[in-house]
Amino acid sequence: MTEGWQFNTAPWALATAAAFLAASVWFFFRSLKREGSDGWHVALHLLRLIIAVAVAVTLLKPERVVLAKHSEQPRVVVLWDGSGSMKTKDVLTGEKDTTTREAWLKQQVEAKFWEPLAKRYNVTIEPFSTPPDDPKSLDAETQIGSDLNTPLDRALKQYSDLRAVVMLSDGDRNLGENPITAATALARKDVPIYTVGVGSETYLPDVEVISVLAPSYALINERVSIVVTLQNRLPREVKTTVNISGPGGATGSKKVTLPAMAQMQEMIVFTPQNEGAGDFKVSIPVEREDVFPLNNERTFPLAVRKETLKVLVVDSQPRWEFRYLRNALQRDPSVVVNTVLFHPQIGMGEGVGYLPEFPTKKEDLQGYDVVFLGDVGVAQGQLTPEQAQLLAGLVTQQASGLVFLPGPLGRQKTLEGTALADLVPVETDYTKGIGVVSGAEARLELSTRGLNHWLTMLATDPSANQAVWRGLPGFYWYAPVVKAKGGAEVLAVHEAARNQSGRIPLLVTRAAGNGKVLYMGTDSAWRWRKGVEDTYHYRFWGQVVRWMSHQRHLAQEEGIRFFYSPEQPRRGDKVRLNATVMDKLGVPVTSGKVTVTAKAPDGTSETIELVNEDAEWGVYTGPFIPREGGKYELEVASETADRRMKTTLEVSVPTLEKEGLPAKLDVLRELSALTQGKFHTPAELSQLVNSLSLLPERKPDELRLRLWCHPFWCAGLLAAFVAYWVGRKLGGLI
Length: 734
What we know:
It is a single chain. The chain is of the alpha+beta class. It has five domains: about 5-70 and about 700-730, no CATH class; about 75-90 and about 100-155 and about 165-200 and about 660-700, 3-Layer(aba) Sandwich (Rossmann fold); about 205-305, Immunoglobulin-like; about 310-555, Rossmann fold (3-Layer(aba) Sandwich), CATH 3.40.50.880; about 555-650, Macroglobulin (MG2) domain (Immunoglobulin-like, Sandwich). The protein is built from 14 helices and 38 strands. The strands form nine sheets. The chain has an eight-stranded mixed β-sheet. Strands 29-30-31-34-33-32-35-36 form an eight-stranded antiparallel β-sheet, with no helix packed on it. A hairpin with a 5-residue loop joins strand 32 and strand 33 (about 605-615). The protein is elongated.
């Protein structure tokens, strides 16, 4: 790099400029001979020749190069990664000893490994992607993650004396632009990036409890099923035991076998025996090769309550399905059963728990958590259109569950055209008959969704569950189902029968407003008792009742029922709040104001006024967006009914950072290669310092004065052209 004038010396450029200049000289002498050589003409011709020379010079792109040497002391910026992934424990400090990436990095920062560079460079130390001390205090729009591009770009823009950048990281990034963008800009400025890759590029031996999926509440002395996701990163099969422990001595365990280098889900069942809310723990023993013993357990919150679920069973005749279902529910200690048996030909059924008629008022119906609707329709001696309307409102507004149990009389075909028709989750065709009867026994076959759905889980893991369902006694009749409606979940299908839409769906569920509906297209679940008594029959219907009434009982006190969706919201989610308030007579309040005061973990409060969207049922609804994570204290109040209740809402904080994943060191290698820097391992940190010490002086900044496109040069040419044209005009040559 040299100073002085530079020209475009390409042969074509030189030839063009020379030809243009020669032509201009020839025209100069020719014009003198033709137009005269008096003083005025000579001046004009000379001006034209000067313009031609200037144009010829412009064609050669003349540039003045000046080298500006740096007088200030060069700077090295050290960037160290403080993101959540740096908590992964996979940095080897000996043959078998390991430490976390974060701890190793902290040791190097505290030891000031850059001190040997201080004599030659100004050294600036900056962390990046460091999460806040209290992530729950972040607003909903702020994401917690790792951004490699922003610190590189900031260093380039902030320091004019930048000579090199040192980045210590695991290479993980999940926010911001691709760091190649900033690295390219640094390369243009002759600023190399020296990287230190912290962490292992492969998984270290580990057995981990990845996640726990559990309900927010459970009933006392009832079986609770949770789904635990386990990861085995050992090169061998692991036989272990998943243990659950919690307040009041609640325990549960299950022996599992984890395949080598595989992930699997297991369903664990336990029975809480004491009321109250607390943290339950899922854990597995530490294997001898396990380098991350802390991730062998996880906690989850669970509120244990003592409640009674109220169920209404409705049918038109005491068929076997009706008798065994009613018997199973009556023997459930947490369920209170009422029965409506129409008997259209002989009158209403009577006995203990039987109602003289189907409830005709919403205050009489709104107390039921689940309604089983058997071989009943809207007809003389059965349901009225008004009662069907009430039942639909109970489901869609009050978050109750509705189970359709059609039968061989085909009376549910009369639901078409009523308020219940849209709630049926399948399409049926009664024009070809009231069902399909076969002399051969057929069975239900679980769908992919049904294999691990809580409703159909009759065993403790999906594979065993499928075996249980295949072994259950089958059926000889099924309803005339065509296909499932949009938005429905098919849990089980006919093992063989199919039509143009595929296999016949016989166990189907779907959301309906605030509630849920379930369709059982056979009438032979009572046969599941064969050889095993109540083992599967009682368990299935018990799970149906609890699953369908779960949301309805999220929070309630005398006179107020409060529920929300989603049940386990994250920061920034739009949560739909629903409240039903009853007056002293148990009638839902349909006028007045219902409010929810939400007190955030930081102490700030927000009041949400709920709107009555259904005047008949008095369901008040409103949106709430939690702006921070943690436990919110909610107070629901109705001055009109003089009702008030308090509950809590746990809001989680989503994070893009994951612990235990391998380091992405290829990203760091690419940044170094692009900028002519070097990549180092943690053991080579001293070599990095030596490399920086031997880094040559920063090249002088090259300042170029591009005469050929400079505004003054262009303006001068334009002025000369104008002067020439005006001169010829005045001289009468134009």
